[in-house]
Structures are given as structure tokens and as C-alpha cells.
Amino acid sequence: MDEKGGLLEVAKLHDACGVVGISFNETGNNVAKFIYYALYALQHRGQEAAGISVHDGKSIRTHRGMGLVAEVFKDAQIDILRGSVGIGHVRYPTTGRSCIENTQPFLVKYKDGAIAVAHNGNLVNSSQLREQLEQAGDIFYSSSDTEVIAHLFVKELLKYDLQEAVRALMRKIVGSYSLVFLWEDTVLALRDPLGIKPLCIGEVDNGFMVASESAAVDTLNGRLIRDVRPGELVVIKKGEMKTYQLARMPRPAHCVFEYIYFARPDSILDGRLIYDVRVNIGAHLAEEHPADADTVTPIPDSGITLAVGYHQRSQISYRECLMKNRYIGRTFIMPDQSMRETAVRLKMNTIRPNIEGHKLVLVDDSIVRGTTSRRIVDMVRRAGAKEVHVRIGSPPILAPCYLGIDMASREELIAAYKTVAGVEAVINADSLGYVSHKGLVEAVGIPKENLCMGCLTGIYPVEIPGEKCMAAQTKLSEYLNADATKD
Ligand code: SF4
User: Which of 54, 78, 331, 420 has the fewest CB atoms within 10 Å around its CB?
Assistant: First the structure.
């Protein structure tokens, strides 16, 4: 992975968020503990903050904090959150500053009760909506678009029944959203009409759950039922589940980067095991960009499964050459510039005997700015690599993501202004090969018209001022007026 510019930062594409909701059919269950474990399974989707809301039979209680799940929650906090129904969130900031006010779930109280909400995704029209709400007298405590969603939803709930309120909400908000609400003692889950961000339904002992990824269902020893369909509302109350298809678009637009990088390899998205998809991508990469090399090696962790696929198809030996330190927390004493090498090696070190004298194929998922790729290529060269052939499991990232991934601005994206040969020179590789759009789409196994590939093509599934939009998706509002159908 490439980086945001920090000396030690290795992650380059920052994940959006992870959400979970659980409802048990028996009272007395400590749902917070189950949500805690599910959030632990989703920690890769956001490390900045975490939070849990539960309904204790009378009201909603929430605990939120900055940091990893294990830093935010200790036994005492979990014990206080008593109840059999609740929701949780892990956050990486997309809209809104990094501060406690922007942590989720958000709680909004209104005259008929209270609602807590957790969100994965990003609205592209949140500033206009916020302005309208502020002009009408609403007061906001955060800069997050999720609070805008909570306010809008409460207003609709005061006017309509649940289904109509959700439909009215969907007509107003534009962008990507996989949402979980705790509405008194009921869990609601909603996936945007294009299904941009993932959300799935699982069955657990004594109830049901929804989560961003099926790995969270596995962690609770549950059974994955299926993905929440684009435009579908899931209602879980006292361990019973009902689903309502509230919007039907002609095509979905699933985020292709979930398959390349964001989701865990052990998760199943839209019926596809992410591990298998990544092995396929690696195999396509080997076919499209063979290399005269003797060792295939991943940049850990995100390049591992791609490198396995490259190795299987090319028959070039697979060997680990880089070791990542997984125990660097959010806060530690940053080495000064004179300790630059130490700083880099704290995060990633070479396994020198596996590198010395070898011609390497170095496999990674993407290149954003190019600086980390350069640093790693230089590192393996210093460890004695004879040649370094870089292979990338995504096509070049040409454009920013407006739909939930904190990637970079267009000016910062190296592929937006350099050719492949230009990037190859900047990262100091002997050769550079990206998987093609066609190869990627074949490896994922979903037609390209059903994928969001906005950051790879500059054409987005929703209208964004100044950007191109996929023609089939421009009439979003018309489709949102489709009849509600109960499954
Ligand atoms: S623009 Fe890229 S990262 Fe953003 S949702 Fe679309 S495919 Fe995913």
C-alpha cells in the first residue's frame, strides 16, 4: 500500500467504516459483548474510533471513544451496556474531522423517542442538506454526514410510517450508505439503491444480525444468510426479521475496491469469497504482465492473496521477503529524521536472505501517490534484489473517491498525471504492470456495468458536480419512487 505521506504510514487507501446490528429474541443477553466481538472482526475497516449503542428495555445507552475497539471498550463499559438489541460502529473518517464528536453511533432524541445511527459510506449532497436543516433551525453537534442522516430520518418518522419514512429519506440522500439504526428496541438496516458499500444479514443463536462483512457473522459463530439487497430495508425486532425492497435500480454499482483491498479475504461479498477473487486477480496479472523473475513476493498484508494468484499462474516460486510489524499502535514515540531508517523498518523490514541475488516480482494492490512503493522498492534493492518487477492488482487510480474512501485529491494521484512508464521511473522499478480493467472485471465475476469503478475511470454511479456519471444511474430519483414490496 501507498501512504498518506507520513514516514511510517503504510496504508494508502483509508477504509471507510464498519457497521453491525444485532437483535436477540431473549431478554437478558449481553448484546454489547457480541457487538464488541463483531466490531473486532471489522477493525480493518476503521481504526480511528469505535462505539456501541444498546437499548436496555427503557432507553438507548451509548459508549463511544477514539481508538481501536480494544482501547475504547473495557469490561466495565461492556457491563454497563446491558440489553438484547444494539448497534456498533468502527470509524475511519471520510466526512468530518477526527474528533470525539464525530464518533458513532449518533444518538438523536425526539418527541416520540430516540434513534441511534451508524453509517458506512459518504453522502455527496450532505452540505446542501445540512444547510437546509440549519436554516430550518436544526442544531448539529458534529461535522459528520451521519448526523445529517439522523436528523432527516427523525423528521420523516414524525410524518410517516416506517417504510414511507425510509423512502422519503432515500429520496433526499445521495451517495453511498450502508446504515444501521437502533430505533428504540428495533434494529433497522438500509443499503443504498446502488449497493455501493457492503452489508449482509446473518443468523446467530437466538436472533439475527447485520454487518458490513460476513467475517463478523463467522466470528459470532453465525450463519451468513445473504447480502442486504441494494435499496432494501431490514427490520429486526425481538429476534425476528422482516425485509422490504423499497427501491429498485436497474443495476447496482458495488465498489470494486472492496474486492481488491478493503474487505477481508475470508468475507463473502455478493456470493463471492474475497480470497478467491484476489487469487483470480493475481492470475490475470500474471497472464497480462509476465516477468522474467525467480521469486514472487507480496507487500504485506494486502498483496498476499494477489501474490498467491500470480505465483500459481506463473509457476514462479512464492517467498515472503518483507515482514510487517502488526503491533504498532496509534500512538508511539515518532523517531526523528535522523532515525529515518529505523522509522521505516519499525513498520516493515526485509528478509534479506530471501531477497539477495533474486529477481523479484513485488505484488501490491494499488499505487496512490507512489511514495511508499518507491520506499519499498528501494528497501528491497538495498537488501540485494537483482531486479524488481512491480505488479499491481488494480488498474491505475486516476480519480478521487467521493463515495466513502479517503484516497487522495486528483493532484496527489500519481497515475492521474503520469504514464505507466512515468510511474515506473518514479518508483524505481525495472518494470511495472497493472491489471487491466477487463482482467479485473473478469476476476471479480460481476459485469462492469454493475460495479463502481469511479476512481479507475473517472465515471461515477451517482451525479457529482464536475464529474462524469454512468448514464444508467442518472435517474436515481425516478427509481426511488418505485412501489414498496414486502418480501
Ligand atoms: S470510487 Fe473507487 S473506492 Fe470509491 S466507491 Fe467507487 S470503486 Fe470504491
Answer: 331
